[in-house]
Design a protein that fits this description.
The complex is a heterodimer of chains A (380) and B (355). By secondary structure, chain A is an alpha+beta fold. Chain A contains 13 helices and 8 strands. In chain A, a hairpin with an 8-residue loop joins strand 6 and strand 7. Chain B is α+β, with helices and mostly antiparallel strands and 355 residues long. Chain B contains 11 helices and 9 strands. Classes of the chains: A alpha+beta (380), B alpha+beta (355).
Chain lengths: 380, 355
């Protein structure tokens, strides 16, 4: 019997420990002393510092100013940033998927214009996929791009777009033709859209967590140059697999609520009772496993593979776990007699409870991921 | 399997042999007290139970990765033989530099608060606990206290034992009681952490076996749902079933990946472990926790047939239940991991997780 799912055990090369040390020094120097000012979300200031330190576009080719480093090295940098709770979201999307996407499909002119500034941490990107009538069902997208004498004219609405207000550019999935009878994925094209183009209005959508990370982006006859179509016209579906593997397998899929686990560890450190140690240890073991799986996908990406199913698996198990984490920590400490005297721990739990519901939705719902995995298993 | 440097030809040959000998019928016969002598002879012939033992000590001296592959494959076939246990014994013999005979040798643990000593006539008397099949082992390895420290001894198994009870897997388990059992060999050097070493190696071998059994269960499920028709179509076409199996695949992948990482960690440390190793602890916790989920889902998608003795699912299910208890269950290892955090000066988790 040959199993189709293989997560190779990854042994990190020694020089990467040095990379890790350097990131920790960087965070120690640039982030931790200014934590309250920089926050943990968007920070143009922190993104530029990351750019200066060479932490954006690490794997991109040197001819555009990239680092030419391995995916594993980038992985180390990313996980250290997330574990520290650093405000990486200003360059995260650009670094994770928009940059690689442009490098694969954009014209030389666009690459030369944009990539160096992305690497410097000066450009923030957002991804325009979901719409009011198409969320999980991406291929139902209606927002349209029409060829005109000036280039492309965009009309329609994107919804749930993270970071659209801060973004300088959007990579937008637009309808350029009707789907065909035998291929409902046909007819969509990806575009590079400068967010300052006339005709774009962005409306923040306030979330139950109290933030406005999501936005509604409206396109009213937005004209962009012909050159801004990325890759094959009507064939965006062919270009998605690598990008989705980047998006789904990273450490953000199990580290978003990590601070609440650390808060539990701090508490148990002061109250080393057997049942608390056991509960903590069990969660630490979970984290250890999911990180190893995620690291394994980073290795596959390094080897040039497109591990769609493996990435879906990492996101499925990782996001369910990080979503459940605040509930589990609550159930571990909630009955302790001194729980009322732990306002910080309670705050941590509450903060993470509020973001938990979205974690299994953004970037592909549990249900979509399980469909992909089921297909990989040969069930559909 | 996700370990580098493994020989695909060897894995194929092992798969073929274990696939041929490991049937539901044989498992059921073992449960009724049968010892599969000819099957065991074939496995020994191939050198599997002593994979880790160097040539100088009577073993085939395969690369260390291969021992873990053999453990994984024994799980994947639910082979009703003490392959994993003999492997573990051979790892201890390698460290103790004890030459092993070409027969079944198992490691016995003394109960807490009891120690074994060698009497003046070079015999030992006492008792020990062995995971499975001790009633068929010709020799036992034991931790021994001497005036100059701890040693490992190879003794003749006199064959006296407590009542044999079957494990959840239906394999015989007993306590060995020996009186004036002849000591065949004694290690030269002190081996005071043998209990810890055996628990570490045992936990990884069991994690690999559970990984193998889980992979087999996944294959059995995929096959079954594609064949079984209800409501006019194969049940694989129902989204509820697809989601069950997708969840199962995640559990299986996490067990297998963590078991491989733990194996690599043991190989790197040359099977010598000090302190709680997070890779090993995580592997056994994962195997225990996720193993239970694998079982639940597999039986749910099978319906009643999966609950029968004639259908092969049970021999994998029951082995996972049995293996997860041995060499520290997930509660024990979770506690150790938690202790590791609370015993250290700083409770910082991240540096611990990304070692």
């Amino acid at each position: 019997m040959k199993t189709f799912i293989e997560f190779d055990a990854v042994e990190l090369p020694n020089h990467l420990h040095l990379t890790r040390e350097r990131v920790r020094e960087f965070l120690q120097r640039e982030y931790l002393p200014n934590k309250s000012r920089l926050g943990s979300g968007f920070s143009p200031e922190f993104s530029r510092l990351c750019g200066d330190a060479g932490y954006i576009g690490m794997t991109w080719p040197k001819q555009y100013g990239g680092g030419g480093k391995s995916f594993l090295e980038r992985y180390i940098v990313c996980e250290e940033m997330l574990a520290a709770g650093a405000p990486v979201w200003g360059h995260w999307v650009a670094d994770r998927q928009s940059g690689p996407m442009l490098l694969d499909y954009a014209s030389e002119k666009i690459k030369n214009d944009l990539i160096p500034k992305m690497i410097a941490g000066k450009y923030c990107f957002c991804i325009g996929l979901s719409e009011p009538d198409s969320g999980s069902d991406l291929f139902a997208a209606k927002a349209a791009a029409e060829k005109t004498s000036e280039g492309w004219a965009l009309n329609g609405t994107k919804l749930w777009t993270s970071g659209a207000r801060q973004a300088h550019y959007m990579i937008a999935l637009m309808r350029t033709e009707k789907a065909t009878e035998d291929n409902r994925r046909h007819g969509l094209t990806q575009f590079l859209v400068p967010m300052n183009t006339p005709g774009i209005t962005v409306r923040p959508v306030r979330s139950m967590a109290g933030d406005s990370e999501f936005n509604e982006v409206h396109f009213d006859n937005v004209i962009i140059p012909s050159d801004n179509a990325l890759g094959e016209i009507n064939g965006a579906w062919k270009q998605a697999s690598k990008e989705l593997a980047y998006e789904r397998s990273g450490s953000e899929r199990f580290l978003e609520t990590f601070s609440v686990l650390q808060a539990l560890a701090d508490y148990v450190h002061k109250n080393p009772k057997v049942h608390l140690q056991e509960a903590l240890g069990s969660l630490v073991a979970d984290l250890y496993s999911f990180r190893q799986m995620s690291l394994s996908v980073a290795m596959m990406l390094e080897q040039g593979k497109a591990p769609m199913v493996e990435a879906a698996l990492v996101k499925d198990v990782g996001t369910l776990w990080q979503q459940a984490l605040p509930e589990r920590v609550r159930s571990i400490v909630g009955g302790e007699s001194d729980f009322d005297d732990q306002p910080e721990l309670r705050r941590d739990i509450n903060r993470m409870l509020k973001i938990a519901p979205k974690l299994t939705i953004q970037g592909g719902t549990t249900e979509v991921l399980r469909g992909i995995i089921a297909r990989g298993l040969g069930l559909r | 399997m996700g370990l580098a440097n493994t020989d695909a030809l060897l894995a194929d040959a092992v798969s073929k042999l274990l696939g041929n000998i490991s049937s539901n019928e044989l498992c059921l016969a073992v449960e009724k007290g049968h010892w599969p002598a000819s099957e065991w002879a074939q496995v020994v012939e191939m050198g599997l139970p002593m994979a880790w033992l160097p040539e100088s000590l009577g073993g085939p001296e395969l690369p260390p990765e291969e021992g873990f592959t053999i453990a994984r494959l024994s799980g994947r076939n639910a082979t009703p033989l003490p392959i994993g246990d003999a492997l573990i014994a051979s790892a201890i013999a390698t460290q103790a530099k004890l030459k092993l005979p070409d027969t079944l040798v198992l490691f016995g643990n003394t109960p807490a608060n009891e120690t074994l000593v060698i009497d003046s006539d070079d015999t030992v008397s006492g008792r020990c606990r062995v995971t499975t099949f001790a009633n068929h082992a010709e020799y036992l390895m034991l931790p021994i206290q001497t005036s100059t420290g701890s040693r490992v001894a190879l003794i003749e198994n006199s064959g006296n034992q407590s009542t044999v009870e079957n494990t959840l897997a239906g394999e015989p388990c007993c306590e060995c009681i020996f009186e004036k059992a002849r000591v065949v060999a004694l290690s030269d050097e002190d081996f005071s952490d043998v209990q810890k070493t055996i628990e570490d190696i045992g936990a990884v071998v069991r994690s690999q076996q559970i990984a193998g059994a889980s992979e087999a269960i996944m294959a059995i499920c995929v096959n079954y749902v594609n064949i079984r028709e209800q409501f006019g179509r194969p049940i694989a076409k129902f989204q509820a079933i697809q989601h069950h199996l997708a969840a199962l695949a995640g559990e299986v992948a996490s067990i297998a990946c963590t078991a491989d990482v733990a194996s690599l960690s043991l190989i790197k440390s040359n099977f010598d472990s000090s302190g709680t190793n997070i890779a090993i602890a995580s592997a056994k916790v994962r195997a225990g926790c996720s193993g239970a989920k694998v079982i639940r889902i597999a039986h749910q998608v099978h319906g009643a047939i999966g609950f029968t003795e004639e259908y092969e699912l049970h021999r994998f299910t029951r082995r996972i239940w049995s293996w997860r208890e041995e060499f520290g269950n997930e509660m024990v290892w979770s506690h150790r991991l938690g202790q590791l955090v609370t015993d250290s000066e700083s409770p910082q988790l991240w540096p611990l997780v990304c070692v």
